[in-house]
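Would you mind giving me a polypeptide sequence along with per-residue structure tokens?
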Amino acid sequence: MDCKEVVAALFLFFDNEMEEDLLSPFRDHVSGCGDCAKRVDYTRRLLLIVRERCVRCSAPERLRMRILTSLPHRGTVSGPH
């Protein structure tokens, strides 16, 4: 795996969606490439900040219902998850 492939696969890695046969080459490249190691570390820290600060935010119920009712019908609208 090269730097370009690592960049393309970063979010697959962090979302645990990377195919098993790519995990080892990904990790091997990152462990031997300072630039990619920095990129992985930066992305990890960025995702932690986003999760800490944004996941807890929720749209007001009225806005949420407007959005849900504007979407194509997919069955019943359920409450907050």
User: Anything to note?
Assistant: The chain has a mean pLDDT of 86. The first helix runs from residue 3 to 14. The radius of gyration is 18 Å. The chain has one domain: 3-70.
